[in-house]
## 1
Amino acid sequence: MSSAPGQIPPAADALLAKAQALLSNAVSERDAAFRYPVLATADDEGGANARILILRDFDAESWRVTLHTDRRSAKMSEIAAGNTASLVFYDHIAALQVRMKGTGETEKEKSALRNVWENLPDGTKPNYRSAKPPGALLESADGNPVSLGQTDGFENFAIIRFIPESVDILQLSPQGNSRYRFSPRTRLGTWLIP
Ligand SMILES: Cc1cc2nc3c(=O)[nH]c(=O)nc-3n(C[C@H](O)[C@H](O)[C@H](O)COP(=O)(O)O)c2cc1C
């Protein structure tokens, strides 16, 4: 087994295919573990900021991941700063961890945003209607209710595309763990010490 980056051997190919299948399935499967990745960004003091987001789409060819959020949230400015971000998935049943490192870009086309917005479940849209930004301080003693803005929330709706420069896959196994890192851009990969 070579440790230098190069052509993808069959065992690594199978690992990549397994991760791709789990990611593709999680787009529509509400109970899939890979549906709830952790997105970590660098905050404006150079610290880490991590939170769970729902996986909305996955492109198996480029490994790009689509996420939805409120454009006023901290993650948006942290992604716009252009620092490397990380997206981590773990499926306990599959015993598989996928760590992506890369950058994010946000959808600028109003018509594309509108198209996705129109197809969101009605229960999701109110999440974008808070008068104050996510993370703003609340004055009420019980943390509720969030006062709603006058609009339907569309102006706060944002789509993030996460573009991985590397995909690091760890397969846990009683026979021995294995780890493979792959670049979707160069299509090269290498086995790593787990
Ligand atoms: C199960 C679960 C799913 C979530 N899905 C999303 C999501 O799809 N988009 C989002 O912006 N926040 C989502 N959140 C909330 C975020 O974890 C986070 O609290 C919020 O986006 C504010 O993050 P920020 O202030 O760091 O930007 C989810 C939280 C949980 C627990």
## 2
Amino acid sequence: MDKAIYFEKYRALRNEIDDTCDRLSKMHVGKMQCRQGCDSCCEKFSVFPLEFEAIKEVIQSDGTFQVPQQRNFEKFRKSCLFLKDGSCSMYEHRPIICRTQGFPLLYQSGDGTAYELSVCRLNFKEINVDTFHDGNALFMPPFNSRLYLLNQEFVKKFYPKQFKPNTRIGLSELI
Ligand code: SF4
């Protein structure tokens, strides 16, 4: 398999997550306040090499995409370097972690016996968090496992010496 096939598989997974997020958006309409300018969750994220390269490939082939100019002082800012005037300058190509922000997220506890909930209090300030379950929240473990395994295969095939399966690369390296 060449890299393009891995990128395709990554995008298929990303599309599935987008579809799930669309369904949740409709379910929580009126409560989700995500909008331009509400960007405190736009931190300096890192991603697996597979996701990093898939994004890099698409922004390099997008003739209209303008890579932000990194000025020296921006290296020290806390927010993502792709955040510009309250908007994501690579919105179409943003990674999975950014696509799931704002939704109620469910994870499994370390020993697998309980759910852990991560919820944006700007969106769900009036909701009892006990009302969330895998039918109205984004249950992340299956998606995370699939991404992890796909990346593991990718790294093993193309970067067996450079990267470990859990190596992550900062999005700022795209600049
Ligand atoms: S890539 Fe875009 S959505 Fe993700 S943290 Fe950066 S500015 Fe925010």
